């Protein structure tokens, strides 16, 4: 069995559509279908029922779904933990950051403070907030950079960790230009999964919608939701640090007024009593 087969299976289980899942996995649909069939052959039973409406999990597929997620999570953790053992001695500073901030906020933020050579070797771990909190609690990184809202506290208790505000952001409901899905009436929502810090914030602080809404798609990646919103699948609350340029260029538009915006902080967390020189220097910048 190949690792990609598990990723393909989870993508199809989430998308319920071969063409969208193949696009998400960056392969052609025929190649994607062959890999799904290879996984079913390896297991020995169909995992999906194919139909005109897409693909639905069979009873066997439903049983295999959580097992596949767990296997993939364990394999990724084993790879990350093993790599961390080798890198810990060489890296002078390890930082965990959520996906959205890793790709947008972090590069400019770190460059504007000090030349990288002043901090020594930096190891950046990019993952969901849930995974970043886990590795922070395990002491595998020196600092954590994430979105934060006072109504949605995380797992890093004040008695063990301290934090400071290093920036700000705003979550704005966005959709495709001319989309039928806005906040003015019945709408389709593109939501964040439970592992997402932005999903945690919206669950606690999102304003009440004026009309009925249905969550039709979830992902812990803001970039995925941005793409889905741009393609007209629904409305997503997106961080301006990521989607601001899409808004300026007209590839996305507001799905509602500013009353629906959610103001958030960008915070840097570190463990109390840490003695890493790079982390101390970063904290003081």
Automatic annotation (TrEMBL):
GO-annotated molecular function: DNA-binding transcription factor activity; transcription cis-regulatory region binding
Residue stretches making up the HTH lysR-type domain: 1-58
Keyword line: DNA-binding, Transcription, Transcription regulation
Transcription regulation found in the keyword field: yes
Domain of life of the source: Bacteria
Pfam families registered for this protein in UniProt: HTH_1, LysR_substrate
Keyword Transcription regulation: yes
Family: Belongs to the LysR transcriptional regulatory family.
Protein name from the UniProt record: LysR family transcriptional regulator
